[in-house]
TrEMBL record:
Record-level GO BP terms: RNA modification
Protein known as: DYW domain-containing protein
Family per similarity comment: Belongs to the PPR family. PCMP-H subfamily.
Residue span, DYW domain: 470-535
Species assigned in the record: Lithocarpus litseifolius
Domain of life (superkingdom): Eukaryota
Keyword Repeat listed: yes
PANTHER family in alphabetical order: DYW DOMAIN-CONTAINING PROTEIN, PENTATRICOPEPTIDE REPEAT-CONTAINING PROTEIN
Keyword field: Repeat
Gene3D superfamilies xref list: Tetratricopeptide repeat domain
Length: 547
């Protein structure tokens, strides 16, 4: 433009500087040159140009220059403040330091009686979500309502995220209801929020509602839905969603394929997950970690370790999930390798050694942060109990009782047709409960007879003996498996999921039940998969002992 004799206004440099804030090759170099040119023309302190300069330097990772320009502005407008606040919050990960810098700038705006815009609030909510400053986020929400900006779609989406991340599912849902749903962003927030908080059925219902409105879900929603289906033990719904993703051209996204591998693994389909993995063009650390962990959970220890070696051969650095999968695999009959891998973690990857003292300290700290959460109490009790420290273990039980903290309710579920049926211990709420209990009792009587017939091979198995109390114990997984036997075709495997660990007696019972009914049973608990085929516990093929 100058070469043509055209006079520059402030908007031309601003537009070009915006382009320089992208990942285009040499964009930073061009931006620096344009900055120098703006100084020469006396445009660098113009509101539009300064805003664009702050934005460019922040996006190219040069916050020092961005801050310097911000401080040089004698008349700092809302646009300048927004650019600087956004600059501190640029990137996928936001540090506490930068988030607090953004909070300080917002506080200065308020002291100057400046009216925040929707961009200001959107950035502030992003900061609150990033560092989990949920109480401050709720204060921001009050100001948003004061300025009547709560109906903005992007602010509504950020508010939905805020409440779901803080565990306030009901408040998050309310924010979604009042938010205009013109874009996929709002739907992504609430669906992922439901999945993160364990409301998988609600997420699935919203997904189908989204489709009914003719909206096209993106790869993040599809990934969340596959995660929901894996936790619902609903592979059929997951396969339908995966088919939709392929049909709409997003099925090859890595995030979707990773979720698909995880879904197959969690549903007990150990044959399909490797097929998806092999189809991936560029598997990332998540892909490898999921494959290693799923093989470990299914008892395929040697396969998991082979994948780990192959992963290192491709030059992909393992993360903490990878190491957890490797150690899980090593705990299944390959202890020597496990010790070697553990030493390598300390030496090569600077992983810390877990011990009773550390575990005790961490558990006590988590109890302070979440006094009504049962998991930490149970963990601390187990630490004391395993170490033979009985008195503190007893006190932990008493503390739970005094605070009214109850252990998580054991829940088992199974998918039959297009419905997921749930059971708890001693559950008689199911419409078929009378038939289920009658069938279970009949099968238990048959098992009891087999156990005490000495010439039967079953009696030589080194498992705890089944007694009357064990046989008549109506654990949730027994009820779910019985329902599956009654409701599924004889050729179909019975796949049951449980949110807690499976007790030894139930593990033993499933082995006998598989033999009596000549059915394949796949039982997934909170840590492992247990495969049973007519009295053959496939988990023990590699000397695995889960209990």
């Amino acid at each position: 433009m100058p070469q043509l004799g055209l006079k520059l206004n402030t908007y031309a440099p601003g537009s070009v500087l915006k382009a320089c804030g992208t990942n285009i090759k040499d964009s930073n170099q061009h931006g620096n040159a344009l900055h120098a040119f703006s100084v020469k023309l006396g445009l660098d302190l113009d509101d539009v140009v300064a805003t664009a300069l702050i934005d460019m330097y922040a996006k190219t990772g040069d916050l020092v220059d961005a801050i310097q320009i911000f401080k040089l502005m004698s008349d700092q407008s809302i646009f300048i403040y927004n650019a600087m606040i956004s600059g501190f919050l640029h990137g996928e990960t936001i540090s506490d330091e930068y988030a607090n810098e953004a909070f300080d700038l917002f506080s200065k705006m308020q002291k100057k009686k400046m009216k925040p815009s929707k961009f200001t609030f959107s950035s502030m909510l992003k900061a609150c979500n990033a560092i989990e400053a949920f109480d401050y986020g709720k204060q921001i929400h009050a100001q948003i309502c004061k300025w009547n900006l709560h109906l903005d779609e992007f602010i509504g989406s950020a508010l939905t995220n805020l409440y779901f991340l803080s565990g306030s599912v009901e408040d998050g849902a309310k924010c979604f209801v009042v938010t205009p749903k013109l874009d996929i962003v709002s739907w992504t927030s609430i669906i992922s929020g439901y999945v993160q908080n364990g409301h998988f059925g609600s997420a699935l219902a919203l997904f189908y509602e989204l489709l009914s409105f003719g909206m096209k879900p993106d790869e993040f929603i599809i990934s969340s839905m596959l995660g929901a289906c894996s936790n619902l033990a609903s592979p059929r719904s997951g396969q339908q969603i995966q088919g939709y993703a392929i049909k709409t051209g997003i099925g090859k996204f890595t995030i979707i394929q990773n979720s698909q591998i995880c879904m197959y693994a969690k549903s007990g389909d150990i044959d399909s997950s490797p097929l998806t993995f092999e189809e991936m063009e560029n598997p990332d650390v998540v892909s490898w970690s999921v494959m290693i962990s799923s093989n470990a959970q299914h008892g395929c220890a040697r396969k998991a370790l082979s994948l780990f070696e192959l992963m290192k051969g491709y030059g992909i650095a393992p993360n903490h999930i990878t190491f957890l999968g490797v150690l899980t695999a090593c705990s299944h009959g390959v202890l020597v390798k496990g010790l070697r891998f553990f030493e390598n973690m300390k030496k090569d990857y600077c992983m810390a050694v877990n011990d009773t003292v550390t575990g005790k300290r961490v558990a006590e700290r988590v109890i302070e942060l979440e006094p009504q959460g049962s998991t930490s109490y149970v963990l601390l009790y187990n630490i004391y109990n395993d170490a033979g420290i009985n008195l503190p273990a007893t006190k932990i039980r008493e503390l739970m009782k005094d605070r009214g903290v109850k252990k998580e309710l054991g829940l088992s579920w199974i998918e039959v047709g297009n419905e997921v049926q749930c059971f708890v211990v001693g559950d008689r709420s199911h419409p078929m409960s009378q038939v289920i209990y009658a069938c279970l009792e009949e099968m238990m009587k048959t098992i009891e007879k087999l156990v005490y017939i000495e010439e039967m091979p079953i009696s030589s198995i080194s498992e705890p003996k089944l007694n009357a109390s064990t046989v008549m114990n109506y654990h949730s997984e027994k009820l779910a498996v019985t329902y599956g036997i009654l409701s599924l075709p004889a050729s179909a495997p019975v796949k049951v999921m449980k949110n807690l660990r499976v007790f030894q007696d139930c593990h033993t019972m499933m082995k006998f039940l598989s033999r009596v009914e000549k059915r394949e049973i796949i039982l997934r608990d909170s840590i492992h998969f247990h495969h049973f085929r007519e009295d053959r516990d496939t988990l023990h093929n590699e000397n695995i002992d889960y209990h």
